[in-house]
Amino acid sequence: MKKSLLNNCNYLIFSLFSFIFFFGNSQNSNDTLLFEAYKNYSKLPRETTYGHLNKSTLIKGESLGFSIYLFDKYTKKSSTQTKNVYITIQNRSGKVLKKQMILAENGVASGIIEIDSLFKSGNYVFKAYTNWMRNFEEQNFYVQHIKVINPDDDAFIEADDDELFDLDAQFLPEGGHLLLNTKNTVGVVIKDDYGFGVPNLKGKVLDSNGEEVTNFETNIHGISKFEFTPLARTVYTVSFSDEEQTEITLDIGESKGINMSLIDTNDKIALVFRTNEMTLQDIANKSFKLTIGNGSLLNVSDIIFNDNSEIKAFISHKDLTPGMNIITLFDENNKPLLERLYFNYDGIKSIVTGVPSVEKINDSLIISIPSSTINSKLFNNLSISVLPSNTKSYNHHHNIFSYTFLQPYIKGRIENARYYFTNPDKKKRAELDNLLITQGWSSYDWTTIFNNPPSNQYEFEDGISINANLNNTKGDTFLIYPLQNSPSVTVGIKEGESSFSARGFLPLKNEPLRIGMIDKQNRVNKPNLYVQFSPIEIPGLGHKFSSLNYKNNNAFRYDASLPILDESWNKIETLDTVLLTVKKEEERIEKIKRLNRGRVYVFDENKRNNIPDFASYISSKGYTAVVLIHPDKPNELKIESNIRKTYGTVTETSEGIEIYSNVAPLIYLDKMLIADFNQLMYLDMSSVDYIIIDKQGIGEGMRGSNGVIKIFTNPLLRTEGSNYSVEAYQNIKFPQSFTISKKFYTPTYSTYLNEFYQNYGVIDWFPNCKTNNIGTTQVKVLNTKNKEIKLFIEGIANDGEFISEEKIITIN
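Now predict its structure.
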C-alpha cells in the first residue's frame, strides 16, 4: 500500500497518489482494521432505484404512470439480477392503499396506478424497492411524495401565503467541529416551518459587543456559508434582516480538536486541516488517518501535524471517484473525528438530444427527437412525460442523476436536488458543495461499518420460486407447463428424494402454475403435490426514509358545476380497448414476422379446437411425424424432414416403418430446445400461440440443415372443451403474481384551454421509448390545440450513460 507521511513540511501532495482498493495490502494493524471493516461492509453488491413519475400532482380519475430504473450502486450501470420490483403508495398515516409487483427487464420496469376513489385530497408517499434492498441501512430504494386533488373534496384550495413563522436555522461547522482560536468554515441552512429553504435571507454574525464579524446571504434553497475565527470567552449571535430582527446564538466552539475545510479548484481539491496551539502540543507526532471512499473503494493515507497547526492536502479530480467521495479523518485508535462529502462531477456520463420536430397528422402530433449520440444497438430506455408547457404538476425534487449519484450517500432530504444536475455550471457546483457542508455525516455510518456489516438475509429475486413436495406421488420426472413469460421446464429428481425446486417463474395475474408428472410410458398424469412459493406476498420495506414534500404553491379555484374530466370517456373505453387490442395484435404479428425467418403460423380459436395433436399438425407442413409403438418400452415420436430424406440413411424398424437418420429438424418449445420429441406427444394444442417453421434453418449451422420449428405457447389461450385432458396436470394458484402492464390512457378533459388544464392536465406518458436505427425517438400525442407543450425525459443508454432533459416544443 502506498502511504504518504508528513515530516517537517505542511503540504501533502496527492496528485500522484494511487487509489488503493479496500482489498489492498496494509502496513500496520490499524490500517488492516479499517480495510477489513470496510471490506466486510462493502462486499455485498448494492442496488439502487430511481422512479420517473409522469406527474407529482394528480387529479382523481387520472392514472399515475411510472418507470423504475435499477442500478448497480457502484458501477451505475443497469442492475439485471432482479426481476421483482415492489411498488406501494401509502397515506400520511402509513396505510398502504395500492401495491404491485412489477416485472423488470434489463433493469427497467414500468406500470400504472389508477388514482381512484381511495384517494382523498392530500399527500401520499410512493415507494419502489427490491427484496435485496432490505438488507441495507442506506436509503437505496426510491421514495417520493405525490399530491392528489379530489374535486369531490375540494371546491376551493389556495396556497400557503409567504408569511414566515419559526425559522429553523442550522449552523454546521465543516467537518463537524467548531474549533476556538482557529479559522472555521460554517455551513448555513435556513428552513421554514415546512422544511423548505428560505431564499435571499441576509444574516450577520455579531460578537459579544455587537460588532459584525462576517455576513452571509442564503441562495434560492436557503443555503450559504461563512468563515470566521471564534475566540474563547466570546458569545456569537446571528442577526437576520427580516422585520422581526430574529437573533440566534451560535454554539460555543471546542477548546481542543481539529477542523477541516475543502477548497475546490479547477482540477483538484485542497483539504485543509487546522488545529490550535492548545491542541498541537497533545497531537504532535501522532498519526491520523485520512480515508476517501465511495462505498466500494477505500483510499487511506497517514497525516502527522508535527509542529504545524495547518496541513494542506491536494488531490487531483482524476484521482477521485466520479460522483460522491466520502472524506473521513480518524485518530490513532480508528475513531472517526471529521467527515466531509465532496461531489466530483468529472467522469459522469450524460446524453444530450437534439431539437425535436413536430408533424401534424389529423388530430395527432408526431414528435421526433433526434438522439444520434445514443447507440441503438445497445439497450436504451427513455421515459417521457408530455404535459402542457405551463404545468405546475411536475415538481419532482430529483432526477435520474441526483437520485442515483447523490441521494443514496446522504441521510438528509434535499430540496430540488435535480437543480444541481440540470445544466450544471460553476455556480451550481459550488452551491452543491455548500449543500454537502450542511449534510454532516454520510449514510455510511462508521459505527455500523465496524460493528454491524449487512448480511444477505434477503435474496435477489428473479421471479417466483417454488418448492414442491410429493404427496403419495410416485414419479421422478415432472413437466412444468409454460407461462406467457416463462418457458416450459422438465424437472427430474433422484431416487429417494421427495421434493424438487424450481425458480424464475414470471406469472401474470390469473396465470396458474400447471405441473404434470411424466410416467414411464411418457404419458403426462396429474400429480399430487404440495407446493410452497416465494415470495407469497409483497414484503414491507420496514426502513426509515427521508423524503421532502412539495411546496403547497398549487393554488387553484374549482367550480364544482364544471367537471374537470369529461366522464364520457369512460363510456367508450371498452370500445377503445377492443379496437386497441385488435390493432395491437396486428402489430404484434407483423413484428413477429419481421423479426423471424421462415413462415409464421398464428393460431386462432378455430385451429386450437380442430387440431388434435402436434404430430397431426406438423405432418401437414411438409414433415413426417409417426408414433412408434413398442410393446416393452414407452411409445416414441419420430419427426423427419421430407425435404432432406434423400440425404439420409434408410433403416427399417421391426414394425416395417422406414426411418431416415440425420433428418430430424430442430424443435424449440418456448425458446428451449427439445431433445426428446416424446414431450410433444402431449403438447396442449389449445395453448399454442404461434409456430414458426424455417425449412432452411439458416443461422443454426449444420444442426439446422433439416429445418427449424419454433413453438410458442400461452396457457391463457387455452379454450374450453379442448380435447387435452384437464387431468394431465395439477393446477395451482400463484399467491403473488406480476401486475399486467397496461397502456397509459389519457383521460378526456372537459376543455384543454382553461387555466386548470394548463396547470394540472396531462397530454400523455411513454414509459418505454427506444431509439430507432436512424437515431430518432418518436412519440405520438393528441393535439390539444395548445401552442406549447413540454417534454420531461429521463432514461439510460450506451451502457452507463444517463439522460435527463426538459424540452419545450412550439406547435405552429
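The chain has a mean pLDDT of 84.
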